[in-house]
Amino acid sequence: MSLLVYPSLLETGVENMASDWWLMQQAVNVSLPLFRHYEWAKPEISFGYGQKWQWVEGETGESIDNLIRRPTGGGLVRHGNDWTYCLVLPKGHPSYEIPSLDLYEFVHASMGRALANQSITTFLQPCEVEKKTGIPGDCFHEPVGKDLMTGKEELKIAGAAMKRTRSAILMQGTLEIVKLSTFNSKIFYQEFQEQLLVLLEQDLQKVEWPAEFLKERQVFCEQFKSSAWRKNRERI
């Protein structure tokens, strides 16, 4: 069995969300974990599934028409100077049974080990004795347990959010490379993938986007750019 790794894409926020959601459907069909790293065609702001769009507008000064609601939870994230990834784990694969916090911890610890090979020191944010309630606001200004941190000032550099359904887990995460004095993306990507293979106990198989990908993804693009989704999480 393999971890299927798709090529990196440089796209808009709507297209990035649609591609991740398309991958979630594919993981269910092939019963294998899927992974991809991607970039943003322009600076954009995404916000969590459970956040109120009015608050996000006020916090960012951006119209809801220019904001991207993710299918996963968490707080708002500013993209453009980050390294973003998507990991999908289908039901039936052993990794689907990993508790969410343990999965969150392992992925961020893996990122930390990959960064350590570039002499970048990191640590995991300790979990609070009394867990805060409510939805996070600004993701990188509000560290939570097992986020990846760095520096004497204890800056958060990596966070993630998940969507767990009866058929799969979607994990969307980001590393704020702008906070790192040195960073080689190719070296990091290779080493991070190797760490994931340890977690999943799989080998790695690189695959191409299929010919029907753009056509099949289009319905998800329509969903993520709609006002009904951005404001009220309504599927079309």
What is this structure, in a nutshell?
By secondary structure, the protein is α/β, with parallel strands linked by helices. The chain is 33% helix and 25% strand.
List the helices and strands and how they pair.
Elements: E1 2-5, E2 10-11, H1 13-30, E3 34-40, E4 44-47, H2 53-60, E5 67-69, E6 77-79, E7 83-90, H3 100-116, E8 122-124, E9 148-150, E10 155-164, E11 168-175, H4 185-200, E12 203-206, H5 213-225, H6 227-232
Parallel strand pairs: 1-3, 1-12, 2-3, 4-5
Antiparallel strand pairs: 3-7, 4-6, 7-11, 8-9, 9-10, 10-11
Provide key terms for this protein.
236 residues; alpha/beta; nine-stranded mixed sheet; three-stranded mixed sheet; globular
Detailed description of the structure:
The chain is of the alpha/beta class and 236 residues long. Helices cover 33% and strands 25% of the residues. Strands 1, 2, 3, 7, 8, 9, 10, 11 and 12 form a nine-stranded mixed β-sheet that branches. It has a three-stranded mixed β-sheet with strand order 5-4-6, sandwiched between helices. α2 (53-60) links the parallel β4 (44-47) and β5. α1 packs across α5 (213-225) and α3 runs antiparallel to α4. The longest helix is centred in the N-terminal third of the chain and has 18 residues, at 13-30. The termini are far apart. The model has no long low-confidence stretch (mean pLDDT 92).
